[in-house]
Request: fold
Amino acid sequence: MLIPLLLGITFITFSLAKALPGDPVYSMVGERASPEIIEKIRTELGADKGILRQYGGYLQLLARGELGRSYYTNRRVAEDIAIKAPQTFKLAFAAMLIAVPAGLLLGLSAALSRRRWVDRAISGLTISGLSLPVFWSGLMLMFLLSLKLKLLPPSGTGGLQFVLLPAMTLSLPALASLARVTRVAVLDIRAMPYIRTARAKGLGDLRIISAHVMRNALIPVITVIGLDFGSYLSGAVLTETIFGWDGIGRFAMEGIIKRDYPVIMGCILVSTLCFVLVNMMVDLLYQYLDPRLRKR
Reply:
């Protein structure tokens, strides 16, 4: 289903991109350019053709393994994405390294302390993490850790000191979501009859949690991890823009502002491919975690 899915995504996004208000030709040459120059550039870009012919031309590019050239830099879009993709991957991995262990620990702690003050405190924190918009939490972290405490640089692309702030900002919603899903999953598993049987056999709490509870609770948790990680690989537009992180998300935003259609299409296509592949890996991981699924 990957090929028809990508074709459907390209057609929808191509049509919507062309429907955006504004003309990339005027952005390139200015409104004072002569009609002859504007018409010449339209012809060179293929903008004078119908939308179906333009889409057909784009599919021919894809069939040759190309994503077109940027209207503004005349560079191959595939080359620019190949340069910026590792930065997005670095940010996504850093965010998940923060979100996954912290989210699992908070969710497990809340479930084991059900209806006590620890559970209520963690629930309040997770609701706040899900409610606060990314741009606000990013600016607050920048204000606190960069401007006040002078611990981290406020923006830029680089090593560990540059990646920490955007990774922390990006990880907050995923951390909160993971904690809530983990809490619910652990509570559901602990109520199962086989957990009572394990206790009756004399197994300790640590053994029950590690061998029975967490393994079975990981299926819904891995779904959330896969969705979040796939969306991070798709380019965290707001986070990359706020912190000046030179990744796919910021590259896509620049393309949208400039009406650079090859850049917009290339970023969306690569993002869709990453998202689908990550979720396919999650589906395969289900087979390992739950042997019952292998018989279907």
About this structure: The radius of gyration is 24 Å. The chain has a mean pLDDT of 81.
